[in-house]
Amino acid sequence: MINTQPSGNLQRTYARISRNWGLYVLLLPAVVLLLCFTYKPMYGVIIAFKDFNPVAGIMGSPWAGFKYFEKYFHSYQFSVTIKNTLIISLYSFATFPIPILFALLVNQLRAGKFKRVFQTVTYMPHFISTVVVVGLMMMLLSPGNGLIGSIYRLFGAEAPNLMGSAGLFSSVYVWSDVWQHMGWDSIIYIAALSSVDPSLYEAATVDGAGRWHKVRYIDIPMLIPTAITLLILRVGGLLGVGFEKVYLMQNNLNISGSEVISTYVYKIGLISSQYSFSAAINLFNTVINFALLLLVNWVSRKYSEHSLW
Amino acid sequence: MDASTKITVRQSGKPVSSDKALETLLYIWAAFVLLIVVYPLYFIVIASFSDPSAVGNGKVWLLPSGFTLDGYKELLKHSNIWVGYRNTILYTVVGTAIGLAVNISAGYALSRRDLVGRKALSLFFIFTMFFNGGLIPTFLTIRDFHLYDTFLVMVLPFSVAVFDIIVARTFFRTSIPAELWEAAQIDGCGNLRFYVQVVLPLSKAVISVLALWFAVGQWNAYFNALIYLQDKNLFPLQLILRDILITNQMQNALGTGEAAQIALRLANLLRYSVIIVSTLPIICFYPFVQKYFNKGVMIGAVKE
Fold first, then answer.
1. A23, A18, A31, A33: which is closest to B108 by C-alpha?
2. Residue A242's domain is classified under what CATH number?
3. Going by fewer Cβ within 10 Å, which terminus of chain A is more open, N or C?
């Protein structure tokens, strides 16, 4: 490798490519699909800087500069959507330790039938569709004839309208997510814990360590690398509150607390057909997310030697 | 009982009473979590068999009250639900087949250390996890390809799943030894034949995991249908469910009076029963395949 001539290198590379042509055939479908449906739209992002007109096409439409970005920054919806997006994602981010705690506790359950049933059951909600979960919430949380209404009446109190309150929107959104995904999200941590060498626990027992000490000095350090990787990925999505669930939960009563960037992008773009404006808001969102991801990855690499790449 | 030895080791060293108390608290916590997860789902089941006024008055807690099958009878009358069901099954089967073919092949190619340009190609894939054109440019692209409002849009354009490619790649790296390929090469076997006749038969674990992920994802998705479909005959089940459960289209059309009361009662019952019927396949299917899911998460968690 060290002493070869440049021309010999080139030839060898060519030989290695042609010998493995079959591998490129295997890659072809995925590459073509990404080029057509992911990379081509990236080029289409330039409509954010144009006055896009479907008849003239992307190239034919006149340039608009930063007009649509400024329009967004100066609009009433700018502060509302940014604020709601940040509240919901930071709130959701704060529940990050729950699956870790869940895994630590599950790991303490004695192996056996109860533990197996417990895990199977708590993973289950993850597989229910978002549409059904939101439908379920609307029925159960209805203050009139839902389960929550009945529970409050049992104690002689009046139930709050959880699905129709702007102030409570983020709480309902985040805690229903915890309900649906905490079991599933803990699997990766449970897997990490199951790889702990049992002799470590035995040695700790001999040294007189109690349960808490084993969790504190064996289990928790074991989870930190996984937790940091997932944490970095989460920060990268900080301004990317998912469209699907928020959009389904939105109604006229909670809209001031539930309009986030992604739902606004959808309404401006596909409901009122302001393509360039919508693309500009979307691009602004993507760039911030990407920058956050790079920043956090950089900080993490610098201070903890853990990073995504 | 292979677990018993472990327990005795743990207990013989620690006969402290505070551990007993902790143990009790732990199981109380577990029972509480089970209740929180299971009860809402159980409630939907009993509510679907109960008289809606009994549900509204808080009489339904443990067993159905005013037993009725009207919700399920009503279900049979709504043909759009069954059209949606059929479409979802088609999208799930075809979408999963395409997704597997595309992603597993790409994952295998990227797992090979002798692939020239591996780094650049990996970057080409991974970049799309963090950056994309966004809703409108993607929408315009789909329209340019004449895929808007077609069957194909639900199964083809978005079938590349980079995360699944990474999982497949990790699996192939750790479980297909490089010596196998070297031996096959000496026998004059090409890459494609090696992939089909040697790699795939050895990869049932990862194929089943990715198939399940894809199938569940397809079954539950509604976003692409919302954006790219207009023809009601192409709607998947989830979009129909959205109409019934969330946008309450039927309720809005109601007037007042006795006929309206009856219609409202049926609409309420229908909502419970439609949840049961649409979610049952996944819930029934899931316990049998759960171990594959767990395995998949673990394959994905192996970091290089």
1. A23
2. 1.10.3720.10
3. N
Region of poorest pLDDT, from A122-126, A206-210, B134-138, B292-296:
B292-296
User: Does residue A209 form part of some domain?
Assistant: yes
Contact residues, chain A, for B103 at CB < 8 Å? 30
Q: Which of B9, B105, B132 sits opposite A202 (nearest CB)?
A: B9
Beta-bridge partners for A216: none
Give the global pTM.
Answer: 0.88
CA distance B162 to chain A (A): 9
Lowest-confidence range among A179-183, B7-11, B158-162, B255-259?
B7-11
Nearest residue of A to residue B39, measured between CA atoms: A147
Helices (H), B113-152: 118-130, 135-144
Q: Which two tokens stand for residue A78?
A: 């700018």
Among A44, A127, A293, the residue with its CB nearest the CB of B282 is: A127
Quick one: tokens of B198?
A: 């040697």
Confidence of residue A298 (pLDDT cuts 50, 70, 90): confident
CB contact under 8 A, A20 and B114: yes
Question: Does residue B92 contact residue B219 with C-beta atoms inside 8 Å?
Answer: yes
B189 domain residue, yes or no: yes
Domain for residue A4, yes or no?
Answer: no
Q: Answer yes or no: do B39 and B148 share one domain.
A: no
- Residue in B closest to A138 by C-alpha: B246
* Record: contact A136-B272, CB cut-off 8 A: no
